[in-house]
Design goal:
heterodimer, A: about 625 residues, alpha+beta, Beta-lactamase, 5-stranded mixed sheet, 5-stranded antiparallel sheet, B: mainly alpha, globular
């Protein structure tokens, strides 16, 4: 290829030319041009972030339930700080001088990393403090105030429901690079679930610094500045008044209270008690330590995170399955003499007439009746083995949502537990268990755990006579439409006709005046409500008090579950609480003859009954 | 086996290599040491860099004295295939760093196959082009070279490492040296020019420039410079008044089309007529010129159309920022501004070792890797940057000179490949830091922090030194 040898000269000349251009440019930049010769101290564009107002949360009636109030973050640019009157500074913001010293020691340590950046010095100071600071700001060079919004809560309630927002930490930023230090993010509850809608979009101003290191003007006349876009308001399905009332009812008790509008699956009220006081919510960091060390775990959203045995309300499910499987009719009679006895096994029951039909069994909550029903489901000759019958039974319960995540829009939702064949095989030996071995399931005890949300969904399903919409907190609005999964009706595996029979029993439980009904305390003047009590045994002390209800019977507007831990009989606490909530929602106020009951509930304090680890 | 003659070892190249590596470490130290002093911890870049430098030297010695040079032509195909495979694989299983997925993570170490594929491509190119019957005029041979270059480039583009892909264009210069027609380079440069003109100014301006270039070229070909050049200038000047003419009432009928459409119709029509005329007269060169003009015209309009219709909003924005049409002070524009201030503030003599404030306060991003030149500029001033430039220039020119002395064409072509790799890296990297080119992330050879880059350039260079030691000079 000798013939192309001369080309090396062409290439070499081109290379030298390119290097000469680069050398000339360096000469220009480093020696000729004064623009770049400015010293390091007065370089730097300064970026000022404008934080958007976070979207508000509205209740189903358009009332604001989570609002914004103005507060200020005090920012510091350590590089610009000169000697200042620390004492006066501390007096304004109610600070310890040691706190200030520590901060500045830290800034010194990391001054290389910090450079000219501004950092948050003190979060969320009040407007009064900010105004005092502004008056004297010339005393504190390097400090500025940035308006931020913090949350305010017009209704007394909803702490767990709303959740809190807090500043992102290093770990969070690592996983979510779209957030920058100083940003807030919803950490729990609705604030977390609707973060993308609520957060809005940050803006920024860009300034130039002059030779005296002072901020001079907007870079290029603000051409590149960006205004902040406020977050979107989210409308919830919550009824603000009802939520506040529900929290009032649950005060002093441990447990949950959930109300759903059956026709839509919209959650009207969701109380987890004890919860976070909304007054602490807006300044969570101050109370955070108290809240996480509180033995009653107020952060824990019991309504969706605490699976417990459902107790007798589960008899409704077994009854429905029995009807569908054809092993039970509403007229089927079973005898009960203070319990169900087979061999040396005994499931106790309370004293009531015998024999009884299905309506009466619901009304009086007979244990023995459901032992018969449950066994006839599992021992059905249609199935080859008890195990097969059990699988069938389990499939029914799953069609009600038990043992599965319902798919709500509430963070941290639990699936609860339903036992499996494998589990019993391990417990009793493979294939060596019979219906009698797992008889506790007939009355909602044993290896079964469901969250209050599951039970509320059961109440809504029965109210609808056999179907439910997945419970949800976001209201369907044109601006923020809900996910399609909330618009799909879920039918259980039980025919809708059978539900009518169970509803009759639930009506009797509250409204039968002939004696023996378990939930007469839940009777509401002028309204026919349906309900079922439950008394869930548990190894940690007194029984849990459970009640599910819906009303009015023929056009259900509200379905409620109350789950009061260690509250004793279902009729003692859960039934009054749930029925008061129903009454409040349907009538707007409590009728005079039930005022005494309301007062008893308000005053009731069961906290001492709940065993907690301190 | 040819006898190894250790006296023939090119000590100048080794000297420059060591100078750059040591100087690189000093600047990495300066840009990454913390205020609180020196700590001997693997978390510190300046400590990690020592490990990379040490291991690179071991690799260099192995290549120089242990691995026989016959190996390279023999393994050129499998080596190349393996690297292309790794390049594609990394796009799927690699870890993502700064938006490009081009790293394999092996424990605490990260390797970037794009750095190493330069070696395999250089070896394979040298192997293919050094075959005795290789001719660029042979379509099969030429196509093979195109493929060998295109495969790794496409794979690297898949990883979004635009900079590393651009480096491969440097191999075209090797091809040029080995007989590829220079028109490809000219056409490439012209295409880039038209592309930039279209986007920065307008298609109208781009067409005017194209007319001017074609006119002048045509007048040279027809040996009528004295007539052709003034005529071209006059025509271009006249045409440039077209948009203004359209604003005059009497010519309002012209506004039916945009000025560039009129211009294209006018000039394109003329070129077409001329092309046919030259074709009939069998003036091949002039005919080709006219056809090239038409292709250029097509290019201008397709750039415009692709840019406005095909590209997405964010892609458009990125190109606009790259070309400086729009500034993005939060992103690219910010980096260049900071980088220029850092280099500019160094002045003639710099602020001295460890004296830089711009780079040490983290104003400049990636200051120990892609923007290491800023630290050099700030702390060592114009003298420092000039020294680095001279070192690179000497290295590259010496490599070319040395390659030309090789009797064995494999060694010659490989040497050229090494030189062109260095050239592309140095020019792209330095131009980016001084605002001559858009910001394209690519390391400065031997100076930047980064094990992959250091290892790759060490291997690249030392393979050549070994070949050189065995040379059968003329």
């Amino acid at each position: 290829m000798g013939s192309f040898k001369s080309r090396r000269t062409v290439v070499a000349a081109a290379i030298i030319l390119v290097f000469a251009v680069i050398a000339f440019r360096l000469f220009q930049v480093q020696i000729l041009d004064k623009e770049y010769r400015i010293t390091a101290e007065n370089n730097a564009l300064k970026y000022e972030t404008i934080y958007p107002a976070r979207g508000r949360i509205l209740d189903r009636n358009g009332q604001v339930i989570v609002d914004n109030k103005i507060s200020y973050d005090i920012m510091v640019t350590p590089f610009d700080v000169k000697e200042f009157d620390t004492l006066a500074f501390c007096r304004i913001f109610d600070l310890d001088t040691a706190f200030v010293k520590d901060k500045f020691r830290e800034y010194r340590l990391y001054r290389r990393k910090i450079g000219y950046q501004s950092l948050v010095f003190k979060r969320q100071v009040t407007s009064e403090q900010y105004n005092m600071f502004i008056e004297k700001s010339f005393l504190f060079p390097g400090f500025t105030g940035v308006p931020r919004t913090s949350r305010s809560y017009p209704y007394e309630g909803g702490g767990n429901l709303f959740g809190y927002i807090s500043e992102v930490d290093a770990d969070y930023i690592k996983d979510h690079p779209e957030y920058k230090s100083g940003d807030y993010v919803g950490k729990t509850g609705m604030e977390e679930a609707y973060e993308t809608l609520l957060r809005g979009e940050k803006g920024y101003n860009i300034y130039l610094r002059d030779a005296h290191n002072r901020i001079k003007e907007h870079y290029k006349d603000g051409e590149y500045d960006k205004t902040a876009v406020a977050g979107t308001d989210v409308t919830t399905t919550i009824d603000g008044t009802l939520q506040a009332y529900g929290e009032q009812l649950m005060r002093g008790k441990v447990g949950s209270l959930v109300a759903i509008e059956p026709a839509t699956g919209e959650i009207l009220t969701m109380v987890s008690s004890p919860g976070i006081d909304v007054n602490q919510l807006s300044d969570i960091s101050k109370y955070y330590k108290d809240i996480v060390t509180d033995p009653y775990k107020p952060m824990f959203n019991r309504a969706v995170m605490s699976p417990q045995p459902p107790g007798s309300v589960f008899k409704l499910v077994n009854g429905l399955i029995g009807l569908q499987e054809g092993v039970l009719t509403p007229e089927t009679l079973y005898g009960c003499h203070r319990g169900y006895v087979v061999g040396n096994l005994r499931v106790g029951c309370h004293g009531h007439p015998s024999p009884i039909n299905m309506y009466q069994s619901i009304m009086m909550s007979c244990n023995a009746y459901y032992c018969y029903v449950f066994r006839s489901i599992l021992d059905n000759p249609k199935y080859e083995s008890v195990q097969q019958g059990f699988e069938r039974w389990k499939a029914y319960t799953e069609s009600f949502g038990f043992g599965t995540k319902l798919g709500t829009d509430i963070p941290g939702e639990k699936a609860g537990t339903m036992p499996t064949v494998e589990r019993y095989d391990r417990l009793h030996g493979k294939g060596r268990w019979r219906s009698i071995s797992i008889i506790s399931l007939s009355i909602g005890q044993g290896e079964i755990g469901c969250t209050p949300m599951h039970l509320a969904n059961l109440a809504a399903t029965i109210a609808n006579r056999g179907w439910f919409y997945t419970p949800h907190l976001q209201k369907d609005t044109p601006a923020c439409p809900i996910d399609d999964r909330f618009k799909e009706r879920h039918y259980t595996m039980v025919d809708t006709a059978h539900f009518e029979e169970v509803v009759k029993g639930m009506e009797l439980a509250i409204n039968y005046t002939g004696g023996g009904a378990t939930a007469t305390v839940a009777r509401i003047p002028g309204i026919i409500a349906c309900g079922k009590t439950g008394t869930a045994q548990n190894p940690h002390g007194d029984d849990h008090s459970v009640f599910i209800t819906f009303a009015p019977k023929d056009d259900p507007k509200i379905a409620v579950v109350a789950y009061v831990e260690n509250g004793g009989f279902g009729a003692t606490w859960a039934a009054p609480i749930a029925s008061l909530l129903v009454e409040k929602y349907l009538k707007g106020e409590i009728s005079p003859e039930r005022k005494a009951l309301e007062k008893r509930v308000f005053d009731g304090n069961l906290m001492h009954k709940v065993k907690v680890r301190r | 086996m040819p006898e190894l003659n250790y006296k023939k070892l090119d000590w100048v190249i080794i000297g420059i290599y060591l100078l750059l590596v040591v100087f690189g470490w000093m600047n990495i130290f300066s840009s990454s040491v913390s205020e609180d002093g020196f700590t001997f911890s693997l978390k510190e870049k300046y400590v990690m860099d020592l490990i990379w430098v040490g291991s690179a030297l071991v690799i260099g010695i192995l290549i120089l004295f242990v691995i026989p040079s016959k190996v390279y032509p023999a393994i050129s195909w499998p080596f190349y295939a393996l690297m292309v495979f790794l390049l594609v694989a990394v796009a799927f299983v690699g870890v993502e760093v700064n938006g490009s997925k081009s790293w394999f993570a092996i424990g605490p170490f990260r390797l970037q196959p794009a750095e190493f594929s330069k070696i395999s491509t250089a070896v394979l190119l040298a192997y293919l082009m050094s075959k005795y019957d290789f001719r660029f005029s042979n379509t099969r041979d030429a196509l093979r070279i195109v493929l060998v270059l295109a495969l790794p480039m496409l794979a690297i583009l898949l990883e979004k490492e635009t900079g590393s892909a651009l480096v491969y264009l440097g191999f075209l210069l090797v091809c040029y040296r080995e007989g590829m027609t220079g028109w490809i380079l000219v056409a490439g440069l012209l295409a880039i020019l038209l592309f930039i003109l279209t986007l920065i100014f307008s298609p109208f301006v781009a067409i005017l420039v194209l007319i001017a270039i074609t006119g002048i070229a045509a007048s040279f070909y027809s040996r009528r410079q004295m007539l052709g050049m003034p005529l071209t200038v006059a025509i271009v000047l006249l045409l440039s008044f077209l948009p203004r003419l359209m604003r005059v009432e009497a010519f309002s009928f012209l506004t039916r089309f945009d000025p560039e459409i009129w211009l294209a119709l006018l000039a394109g029509g003329t070129a077409l007529v001329l092309a046919i005329l030259y074709w009939v007269r069998r003036q091949r060169a002039l005919r080709n010129l006219m056809l090239a003009f038409l292709v250029g015209l097509g290019l201008i309009f397709s750039v415009q159309m692709v840019f406005e219709k095909v590209l997405k909003e964010h892609q458009r924005a990125r190109i606009e920022v790259l070309l400086g049409i729009k500034e993005d002070p939060m992103g690219v524009g910010y980096n260049v501004h900071q980088s220029l201030v850092a280099i500019g503030s160094g002045g003639i003599a710099g602020k001295g070792f460890l004296g830089g404030t711009q780079t040490r306060f983290n104003f400049v991003p990636e200051q120990s890797t892609d923007f290491i030149f800023c630290t050099i500029g700030e702390e060592w001033g114009f003298f420092g940057t000039l020294l680095v430039l001279i070192a690179y220039l000497t290295l590259i020119l010496r490599l070319i000179g040395s390659a030309e002395k090789q009797k064995d064409s494999f060694a010659r072509i490989y040497g050229w490949c090494v030189a062109m790799c260095l050239l592309m890296h140095v020019v792209i990297n330095i131009s980016m830091t001084i605002g001559l080119m858009p910001v394209i992330g690519i390391p400065l050879p031997l100076l930047s922090y980064g094990g992959s880059s250091l290892w790759a350039f060490t291997i690249l260079l030392f393979i050549y030194l070994r070949l050189d030691m065995e040379k059968k000079s003329f």
